[in-house]
Amino acid sequence: IKSTVYAALKLCEEKTFRSAAFPALGTGVGGVPPAAVADAMVGAVADFAKKQPKSIHLAKIVIFQPEMLTHFHNSMMKMQGEAARSKGFMSTIKDAVTSLFGYGEEKEPRKTLVLQKEEFEPAVFQLCGQNKKDVDLAKQRIVALIQKEQVTRIIKDELVCHLTQADMADLESLQQQLTISIQLKEGLDEEEPSICLEGLTRDVFLAEPAIRSLLLRVQQRRTQKHKAVQMSECVEWQYQDPSGQMVAFDAQSNLLLEEALVAHEPVKLKINGETYQANPAFKMAFSSKREEVELLRVDKKAVLPPYWTDMGESLFQLVCLDSSSGDYKDVEQKMTSRGLRLNILKIERVQNVTLWQTYQVLKGSMEKKNGHTNNEKQLFHGTKAAVTDFINKYGFNRGYAGMHGAMYGNGTYFAVDPAYSVRRYAKPDALGHQRMYLARVLVGDFTKGQQSIAAPPARDQARPSDLYDSVTDNEATPSMFVIFHDAQAYPEFLITFT
To answer: Where would I find the Macro domain in this sequence (predicted)?
Structure first.
């Protein structure tokens, strides 16, 4: 029974099914005791969940006889009891099986926007006067003063639809603290989702930046989740459980380990519910009790450019190009082809295995989605010396988008003409040296951008989730492009000049 259920789940995964349902196998004509069936079926789901399936997310066991529910419930409880003695198995039950059986942590954003409206104690005015005219005039002045002190602000943002229950709780708390009314609108048809704030002017003006900060956290959370999923397609980090079996980390821990490896830094993460200090370079993790756990890094897609300098086991290297090399001359030609004359001090090639693999995964997905391969451009990005180390190791970050304005959207900007990047964004350091990247950018299918948008618009209003890949200032003759996913650009060459 166990092998049959496991094989069925494996087949569903291969066919990219989202869910599977099973009857209580063998309890009828087969005559197998219900308790044995429960142990076998739940055990099969647990074993399959260890593999961290990408497609199937829900497994249901359909039970027609009410008395059998007890056996399946006891089977789950028994596994949790065993987990107290074997924490490795507990992580499987908690982190994987719960999601397959359809319960556990909140994984997806909430689908409906409902915020409990705060009720406030009304203020009562008693007006007395010599005649009705004076009373009416006083009433009008009071109403005018109240209206003068009240304001309505509307924040439009597609991220409103991705608020979680925790985000909603933060909004309810803000509503209570500042004596304001917050209304959420999902946006129908072509209308953009929004948050409407009403209340005293001072309170609304305090609430607005707090809500924009919350939406920024939502964007960062979604970006991090997207980045973690992409990373898991390139690299898989595993740890050894007490039985000696290698178990894959969840996507977020996987990303933390890979970033720590590139940065040559330790990182704290959870293994079997306990906090460990992991050293990815030495493939070991240590608990506060000095318990050791062995780590393993599995490289899923190790195809790197053949012209890269050999790095051995290293994942990152900055290679200074010889002025006579082909790469150097190619970059130099791209900079001077539009009449730009600079004193180039050095050109460095950024060899970052993690960023390159993530970029290539997204490139392949974009080619499949768009049905063509004309998605990539080489574009320029001027910056200051203080952030080049971060970009070299972690890539471009949309968090800096608002630093230089966001005329066509809150994303990362790239220029077709290097002179634009030199003039506007390549800030000189104390020695007068300036920096600029020649980057590979996945512009894909693009359209004209709009100020302060957080994502590209939909290609077809009938399919709001089908977005353009990037935006530009001019569809016919673009001079710049804006991307909204950090993995859409690879910082291939860093140019230092005066």
So the answer is: 1-80
Is residue 288 located within the same domain as residue 412? Answer: no
The pLDDT value recorded for residue 190 is 66
Pair (341, 459) in one structural domain: yes
Whether residue 7 has pLDDT greater than 70: yes
Neighbours of 253 (CB within 10 A): 19
- Please list, in sequence order, all residues whose beta carbon lies within 8 angstroms of the beta carbon of residue 497, skipping any fewer than 6 positions away: 342, 343, 344, 345, 433, 434, 435, 436
Q: Is residue 310 part of a domain?
A: no
Distances (CA, A) of 1 to 11, 45, 197, 421: 15, 11, 57, 64
The C-alpha angle 274, 275, 279, rounded to 5 degrees, equals 130
SS3 at position 299: strand
Q: How many domains does the chain have?
A: 4
Q: Has residue 9 got a pLDDT over 60?
A: yes
Within this chain, do residues 343 and 430 fall inside the same structural domain, yes or no?
Answer: yes
Instruction: Kindly state whether residue 145 falls inside one of the protein's structural domains.
Output: yes
For 305, half-sphere exposure in the C-beta direction (CA atoms, 13 angstrom radius) is: 15
**Same domain, yes or no: 353 and 489:** yes
- Indicate the pLDDT class of residue 96, thresholds 50, 70 and 90: very low
State mean pLDDT over 111-139: 74
Angle (CA) 319 325 331, round 5°: 80
- Average pLDDT in the 224-250 region? 87
Is residue 360 domain-shared with residue 473, that is, in the same domain? Answer: yes
Q: What is the pLDDT of residue 476?
A: 95
